[in-house]
Structures are given as structure tokens and as C-alpha cells.
Write a structure and sequence with these properties.
single chain; alpha+beta; HIT family, subunit A; five-stranded antiparallel β-sheet; 5 strands
């Protein structure tokens, strides 16, 4: 990685969404997309282009974070499906998309970056504030307390 590459990386200089949870290694953000409530990203805090640039322990930690966020989004938003994606074509910085999907969403069955198949408001979705989602995510990352 060159200094020029990192200087142009938007995820090195911006949060990438509303920060819901942060550790020293990564952050969870909510993407502001009214068509996909609950759309989150887990973003590595340092600049790396590929998952294989991370140590094995970092890979496991990052994927555990992705799976934890997925479980929270599934529980709260009750989508028909969750899409997990890591492209980096537009932002070559390690990050994962956690995208709740419904059969009546505007792109279904295509990926959300595909063709729009229907316009208009989707059926009523569960409305969850950033604070509520942040609390649910923080709770999921809190270690279980044994009695």
C-alpha cells in the first residue's frame, strides 16, 4: 500500500456511516439507506485492501464481529434474508456489508447494487433508531456474565 492509496481512501478519512460501535481494531456503522433499514458495515480501522493482509487472529475477530452484527440485524429487523458482502471495488479497504433483504424490497432478487425491480415504499418495516441499534449491538458484544 502506498501513502497515496491511503490518502485517497474514504474509509480511512470518514466513518462510512453512523458509528454504532467501535473497538481499536474495527467499527460498526449503519448505512443511511431508507430502503434497507438495518444495513450495516463492519470496517477495519486501519487501511488494508484484503482480508489476507490481516493476521489469522484479526481475520477471526473481524468475521466474529460480522456474524454478531448479522445476528442482531436478523433478530431486530426479521428480514427474509441477510446478504454479506465484501467487495472493495469502490473503496479498496477491508469492510463487510451486512444487508437485510426482503422479498418485496426494490432490488429483490438482485443484489442491492443491481437493477431496481420495483419502486415505491416497501411494506412497513420495523423502525429502529440509531441509538436502539447501537445499544443492541453493544449488548451483543458484551461478554456474558456468569452467575
Amino acid at each position: 500500500m502506498t501513502a497515496t492509496t491511503q490518502a485517497r481512501c474514504e474509509l480511512c478519512h470518514q466513518d462510512g456511516g453512523t458509528v454504532l460501535y467501535r473497538t481499536d481494531a474495527w467499527r460498526v456503522v449503519r448505512v443511511d439507506d431508507p430502503h434497507y433499514p438495518g444495513f450495516c458495515r463492519v470496517i477495519l480501522n486501519r487501511h488494508e485492501r484484503e482480508m489476507t493482509a490481516l493476521s489469522a487472529a484479526e481475520q477471526i475477530e473481524l468475521m466474529a464481529a460480522v456474524f454478531t452484527v448479522e445476528s442482531v440485524v436478523r433478530r431486530i429487523f426479521q428480514p427474509d434474508k441477510i446478504n454479506l458482502a465484501s467487495f472493495g471495488n469502490m473503496a479498496p479497504h477491508v469492510h463487510w456489508h451486512i444487508i437485510p433483504r426482503w422479498q418485496d424490497d426494490r432490488h429483490f432478487p438482485e443484489p442491492i447494487w443491481g437493477a431496481v425491480h420495483r419502486e415505491g415504499a416497501p411494506q412497513q418495516r420495523i423502525i429502529v433508531s440509531d441509538d436502539q441499534l447501537a445499544t443492541a449491538i453493544a449488548t451483543a458484544f458484551r461478554p456474558a456474565v456468569k452467575e
